[in-house]
Design brief:
single chain; mainly alpha
Length: 130
């Protein structure tokens, strides 16, 4: 699998998100993670950064792309709810959904990179952007 700068950047953000979750689990006294609301906000910013870096091909109707978009939308809705309602359940839900979206993205990029001779796969309507 060939890694692109997008894969490396989203992996770094994923590791940062995991650090936030572990900091919250072990009750680290970081100022920005003092409440569930602020922790959800941090995860939401990380998720939005991952979304911006990763980008979406709205013309691609593959199950990986559609499921990644759907999971990202649900995580965004939960993040907005988590900013209103202070809940550990919402925090962990946003964390899990962000992680699942990242795994789907990596799997999709791995599938693209395994295509011989870097040809555009038949399910794409435009060349691969990454």
């Amino acid at each position: 699998m060939k890694l692109s700068w997008r894969d490396i950047a989203t992996a770094a953000l994923f590791v940062l998100g995991v650090a936030v979750v572990f900091a919250k689990i072990y009750s680290f006294s970081w100022v920005i993670l003092d409440s569930w609301r602020s922790s959800v906000a941090v995860l939401a910013v990380i998720g939005l950064a991952m979304l911006a870096i990763n980008g979406f091909n709205l013309a691609d109707r593959s199950w990986r792309n559609v499921s990644e978009m759907t999971i990202s939308i649900v995580a965004g809705i939960l993040a907005v709810i988590g900013l209103i309602i202070s809940s550990p359940f919402i925090f962990y839900s946003v964390a899990i959904l962000t992680g699942v979206a990242w795994v789907i993205s990596v799997a999709s990029h791995a599938r693209h990179s395994m295509n011989p001779d870097d040809q555009t796969p038949s399910w794409h309507h435009r060349p691969i952007a990454h």
